[in-house]
Amino acid sequence: MQAILGKSAPVPLALCLIGAWLITSSQLFAQEPTKRPNVVIIFMDDMGYGDPAAYGNALNQTPMLDKLAMQGARLTHFYAAQGVCSASRAALMTGCYPNRLSISGALFPDATVGLHPNEVTIADMLKGAGYRTAMVGKWHLGSLPQFLPTRQGFDSYFGIPYSNDMWPVDFDGKPVDTSHRKARFPPLPLMRNEGIDRHIATLTEQGMITQWYTREAVNFIQQQQPEKPFLLYLAHSMPHVPIYASPDFLHSTGKGLYADMMAELDWSVAQIINTLQAKNLYNNTLIVVTSDNGPWLTFGNHSGNTGGLREGKGTAFEGGVRVPCFMVWPGHIAAGKLLQGLTTTMDLLPTIASITGATLPSNTIDGIDISDYLTGKTNISPRESFAYYYDRNNLKAIRKNEWKLVFAARSQTYLQYPPGMDGHPGKYGDTAVVKALYNLQWDPGETRDLQLMFPGIVKDMDRIADEYRTKLGDDLTGIKGTETRSAGKIND
Predict the structure, then answer these.
(1) Cis ω on the peptide bond leading into residue 239 (within 30° of 0)?
(2) CA-derived radius of gyration, the chain
(3) For the chain, which end, N or C, has fewer CB atoms within 10 Å of the first or last residue's CB respectively?
């Protein structure tokens, strides 16, 4: 174990371990799992659509993610529900649009709201089905005790309760003075269950987060027995700024800090896979690796890559919400599968319910079971539409199949000012967005407005938008939704 996870493990050894778990497709499909599958969800923070090598990146070294693409499915039209931290995590956990739950933006350490305790998370659902449940990493759905993962279905928790930049430290790693907006933030807590394990005070310590998370996740898997299924939710704090890497990976790639950090995240995925294989659990585990939203482009060389998609995090354009996604389930998801249908993080909860036999929440959800699509029983995704909400509750766009209708609104933009460098952000721009129709199959960069050519499609998508407005509301048109629920409040 020390050779795998020890702080002094050299990079070549870590990367060579990847080969230990790799077995042929014929071996994978020869054993048909008979027990309910384990579930491992690895959620990166701000990893862009174009960051993994399997999505076209020639700079980052992600051999483990590349192998996941070969051993399972790579999804090319997979969406986070919104382009921001707390909202996207609420959607992943509950299978709901975050505005249905009255969760928006990114919750700060002093927030008095969180995910309502009455909401049913993936962990609640699977725990009710007899699963052991553990979360490791960034939570960001409320830092008060009543909102922590241990109150939302997880048997155990190890990680930070919000983003790793929410601490009283400046971009240069030095403590801020009292006039700085971050001065109100407490030291960054690394929590175990509902107590503080230690505080993270320096960038060097931030560089150890990926290793600490990985060690905890591996330890959890090693404790499991084949007869009792489990859920592991590993939510990495990076590539969210401030990025850093452990001594094992710092300066390891020769391609800059971002590439070093991505190599370490890929190593972390390899350790999870290697441990599943060593425990003979890999063949009976659904593995999902994806991201909470697109890259934070204002940070320049410390931000990720959209793969040519428009804009990034904090917007309703493709670069903000379309994210890479790998899914592996040996014997069920064919090796090397490319899935180009519309799918979202919200679809994970009902899909996991379907394949585990767990009971769906009684509350209305927005996710759709895509298990037949993943396993090849159908070649068409059952999801036809997706609503791009942002800000508090602005309906910014609608997608139906390959079409995207964008509505007139204000939007953050990264195009007006140059990006920052070396951990320092550039300025944000603000722009007026006009109504436009894009075909994402022909034009993934959202550059050519086709409204005049396809008025019938515009009319149909306007109708779909009105249906979403009725249910979930829309601040842009002043409509209050009829199906929204309250966020958790401090007195709940």
Answers:
(1) yes
(2) 21
(3) N
Question: Which residues, listed in sequence order, are joined to residue 397 by a DSSP beta bridge?
Answer: 388, 406
Tokens coding 276:
């599943």
The one catalytic residue among 85, 96, 236, 332? 85
Residue 13 confidence (pLDDT) above 90: no
In the set 77, 96, 116, 140, the catalytic residue is: 140
Query: Which tokens sit at 69?
Result: 């693409």
Q: Identify any residues that bridge with 159 across adjacent strands, giving them in sequence order.
A: 191
Average per-residue pLDDT for the chain: 93
Q: Is the peptide bond before 242 cis (omega within 30 degrees of 0)?
A: yes
Give the C-alpha distances (Å, rounded to integers) separating 170 from 176, 181, 186: 6, 10, 13
- Cβ distance 277 to 29 under 8 Å? no
pLDDT at 34 (0 to 100): 52
| Residue 340 in this model has a pLDDT that exceeds 60 | yes
- The per-residue pLDDT for 25 is 38
The mean pLDDT value for 458-484 works out to 98
Domains of the chain, by residue range, sit at 2-383, 387-489
Element (H, E) at 94: helix 85-94
Q: How many residues does the chain have?
A: 492
Residue 49 is classified by DSSP as T
Distance CA 418, CA 416 (A): 7
Please state, for a pLDDT cut of 90, what percent of the chain lies above it: 90
Is the pTM of the predicted complex or chain greater than 0.85? yes
Q: What is the pLDDT of residue 56?
A: 94
Report, at the CATH architecture level, how domain 2-383 is classified: 3-Layer(aba) Sandwich (3.40)
Reduced to 3 states (helix: H, G, I; strand: E, B; else coil), residue 133 is: strand
Which DSSP string do the residues of 151-217 spell out, in sequence order?
Answer: GTT-SEEEE-SS-TT-SSB-TTSSBP-TTSGGGGSPPEEEEETTEEEEEE-SHHHHTTHHHHHHHHH
Q: What is the mean pLDDT of the segment spanning 248-260?
A: 97
Which residues are CB-contacts of 348 (< 8 A; sequence separation ≥ 6)? 41, 92, 95, 122, 288, 367
77 is catalytic: no
> What span, in angstroms and rounded, lies between the C-alpha atoms of 107 and 166?
10
What CATH number belongs to 387-489? 3.30.1120.10
Alpha-carbon span 437 to 450, nearest angstrom: 5
pLDDT at 411 (0 to 100): 98
Encode pLDDT of 105-148 as tens digits: 999 999 999 999 999 999 999 999 999 999 999 999 999 999 99
Are 2-383 and 387-489 in the same CATH fold? no
